[in-house]
């Protein structure tokens, strides 16, 4: 990031907001730009989104299988003819 450009933080926009200081990295000398809470929130959102998508597609699959089984049962009943 260029030192000439300053980023507007929440504290700059509203002085009543407490500044969030990113944690110190454990295994390197680099600066952490993200907070642990932000990373945890993003991970949780992505994980929950993936589970939701999987559940949705599994539900669609199960409904299609049930419809297909209904048609197969209907065809088998209709093909028996007069033997009922």
Order of helices and strands: HH
Helix content: 55-70%
Q: Percent of residues in beta strands? A: under 5%
Could you say which structural class the secondary elements and strand pairing correspond to? mainly alpha
Radius of gyration: 29 Å
- Unreliable residue runs: 1-5
Number of strands: 0
The major beta sheet can be summarized as:
none
What number of domains? 1
Shape: rod-shaped
Question: Topology of this structure?
Answer:
Blueprint: H1 10-13, H2 36-79
What does this structure look like?
- The protein has 84 residues and is mainly α.
- It has one domain (10-79).
- The protein has two helices and no strands.
- The chain has helices at 10-13, 36-79.
- The longest helix has 44 residues, at 36-79.
- The radius of gyration is 29 Å and the shape is rod-shaped.
List the main descriptive attributes of the protein structure presented here.
single chain; 84 residues; mainly alpha; 2 helices; rod-shaped; disordered N terminus
Write a compact overview of the structure shown.
With 84 residues, the protein is an all-alpha fold.
